[in-house]
Amino acid sequence: MTILANAVVLVAASPGLSITVKHAVLEASGGTVIACDLASVTTVAAESRPYAIVVPRDVYEFGGSEFDALARDLDTGLVIVPDGVRLALVSAMLSEEAMRLG
């Protein structure tokens, strides 16, 4: 399994959360964000092998077990965040996931 240490998949996020996550990924790993919708998350994550999948809390509440299984199957981190989350918190969570690879 190849994991791209510089990739994070962001699922069904609002524009504000997308900006926060993009900045957090740059701080955490200097990496990139691959945004996708709910319907394509399995394919996108399987193809990109990210170090983390970021899911808004409200989206996770409707399909949490599926996200848990996907993260487990891909051996990747799963980061669940509320829509108004602060940059520093997301950055810290993603830094922890990125360090897990090393």
Throw out a few tags for this protein.
globular; 4-stranded parallel sheet; 102 residues; alpha/beta
Count of helical stretches: 4
Could you give the order of strands across the largest sheet? 2-1-3-4
What structural category do the secondary elements indicate? alpha/beta
CATH topology category name: Rossmann fold
Mean pLDDT: 91
Helix content: 40-55%
Quantity of strands, as a count = 4
Q: In percent, how much strand structure appears in the residues?
A: 15-25%
Number of domains: 1
Radius of gyration: 12 Å
User: Which CATH class is shown?
Assistant: Alpha Beta
Task: Walk me through the structure.
This protein has 102 residues and is an alpha/beta fold. The chain has a single domain, classed as Response regulator (Rossmann fold, 3-Layer(aba) Sandwich), CATH 3.40.50. The chain has four helices and four strands; from the N terminus they run E-H-E-H-E-H-E-H. It has helices at 15-29, 41-48, 57-74, 87-101, and strands at 4-11, 32-36, 50-56, 77-81. The chain has a four-stranded parallel beta sheet with strand order 2-1-3-4, with helices on both faces. The radius of gyration is 12 Å and the shape is globular. The two termini are 15 Å apart. The mean pLDDT is 91.
Short description:
With 102 residues, the protein is an alpha/beta fold.
